[in-house]
Amino acid sequence: xxxxxxxxxxxxxxxxxxxxxxxxxxxxxxxxxxxxxxxxxxxxxxxxxxxxxxxxxxxxxxxxxxxxxxxxxxxxxxxxxxxxxxxxxxxxxxxxxxxxxxxxxxxxxxxxxxxxxxxxxxxxxxxxxxxxxxxxxxxxxxxxxxxxxxxxxxxxxxxxxxxxxxxxxxxxxxxxxxxxxxxxxxxxxxxxxxxxxxxxxxxxxxxxxxxxxxxxxxxxxxxxxxxxxxxxxxxxxxxxxxxxxxxxxxxxxxxxxxxxxxxxxxxxxxxxxxxxxxxxxxxxxxxxxxxxxxxxxxxxxxxxxxxxxxxxxxxxxxxxxxxxxxxxxxxxxxxxxxxxxxxxxxxxxxxxxxxxxxxxxxxxxxxxxxxxxxxxxxxxxxxxxxxxxxxxxxxxxxxxxxxxxxxxxxxxxxxxxxxxxxxxxxxxxxxxxxxxxxxxxxxxxxxxxxxxxxxxxxxxxxxxxxxxxxxxxxxxxxxxxxxxxxxxxxxxxx
Length: 494
Fold this sequence. Notes:
This protein has 16 helices and 20 strands. The chain is α+β, with helices and mostly antiparallel strands.
């Protein structure tokens, strides 16, 4: 099969052709290429608004691509080593949910780590799939969850041979990678599909010497967040599939939830960014790795901080590490990661990706400059000098093993009651509680509320973590399943 021309950007080319045609727009959107909303045009620019257009024959249709979008998807599939690639304009959330919907129906099991993004549990609420959690190991010094151990996956398969699929998040927000090839081989040996949430893994497909990709491992589907490290606009992603998946059926699944008014700003950004990475990706991520490596060494020389890397690899729960991730453990200076995150923003005008209980993540990309790295290092050094304190009383755990009592769907749609946090112990949660980012639930619907979890929520609130999920915006109350007080009273648990 002949290679495709990766210098092409079919959607971009079609948009440029449309502009030269000087069409008079009697269609939506109503701003009419920006003329109807001069304030918006002044803010975003005429060039941007001129290509914020609706589907037409010249531009193809995202729901049923037959021309330029189809060509662009074929180019993306080749660039990522996939059989098929689908343009996603609802973020990687939409891609992840389409993966689950493609392989699981109501009552069917899916094996997955509990430290998944909320999008996975959200879709199980909607479709009624039943989670079989493989609780990850913890690094208690760093306060982070690790990858899926092969032996634990094997055990879950043995106990649930009727499961339809296995889902792995790889790499995690913290750069942790599981044994993707080993888990994929296990899944296929037992007739299960392998799904990979690669929201944080675009760079793996183009950088030299980085961990194995989902497509290399033989996974059936992978969700890739192109906008994170790939350079496209926020909310744009790819859904990749291998040869085992029926592309027509996957498209139908995508169309159940994806908009019929796909943004050509997002679509063209995916097209252009794919071209850039296909042509220059190795060079781009070589530069990123070099900057992160330099930053990591400099931060570790400050003292107390720990910017970790491949020295954590143990061949099992940490099978590999994504060295493009600049994760800094802040606990030795007596500050939670979220406190350092806040100080960097408020006192030094540096916006990092997120801070949690123990760590702070600085997302480094090709758009960063060496002087930006120096500024970050200097700010961290000054924070240590000015704010370091005794670490006594700091909580470390980022993840607490949950006890699942009911399926997410049954719990979410159950009869509920709202109770103060102090009265929720031993009740079954009927909603989400999480810090965002990273968007990994502390509590999900159907899980037992323990004192440990309540202490964690209160602590995270006190430290200033961005808490989301509950109906109560102040998170002083939680919705719980009415009349269910503890596991011992449950007669219908999963």
